[in-house]
Design brief:
Small_HSP, 145 residues, mainly beta, four-stranded antiparallel beta sheet, three-stranded antiparallel beta sheet, A-crystallin/Hsp20_dom, HSP20-like_chaperone
Length: 145
């Protein structure tokens, strides 16, 4: 419980508004980024991003020039109220979620075979590893003429 504050005549209005809008029970949107798991097996890496309520259309995944896997998501929600007669807003919330994370890819990822899907509130990105034969082709020796 917060102690009672003394208000003088000059600043009591801002303090009342601050007390009302700064309560602990009011959680601010985007306070934290979604949880990310990275899993490695012999054949691949998997990146899992917690994405409750998101669809595949809310995501953008691409490879950067710096060999990074860039994952971004953006979702906007606005609640519209049709019956506004004799009502005025004291507070109305819009929901906006935005997130971007760049992960440096290991050298053994086969970039041509990366795929992703969203299911049950989780974005899963599969990053297959190159076979030993494919690695040998990449690490070939260049002859000097």
């Amino acid at each position: 419980m917060t102690p009672m504050r003394k208000y003088n005549n000059q600043n009591w209005i801002p303090s009342i508004f601050n007390d009302f809008f700064d309560n602990d029970w009011m959680v601010k949107a985007n306070a934290t980024a979604p949880a990310i798991n990275v899993i490695e097996s012999d054949k691949d890496y998997k990146v899992e991003v917690a994405a409750p309520g998101m669809t595949k259309n809310d995501f953008n995944i691409h490879l950067s020039e710096d060999n990074e896997l860039v994952i971004s998501m953006e979702k906007k929600n606005e609640t519209k109220e049709e019956d506004k007669e004799n009502k005025k807003y004291l507070r109305r919330e819009f929901s906006y979620t935005q997130f971007q994370q760049a992960l440096v890819l290991p050298d053994d990822v086969d970039k041509d075979k990366i795929n992703a899907n969203v299911s049950d509130g989780v974005l899963t990105i599969e990053l297959p590893k190159r076979t030993p034969e494919e690695k040998a082709k990449v690490n070939r020796v260049i002859e000097i003429h």
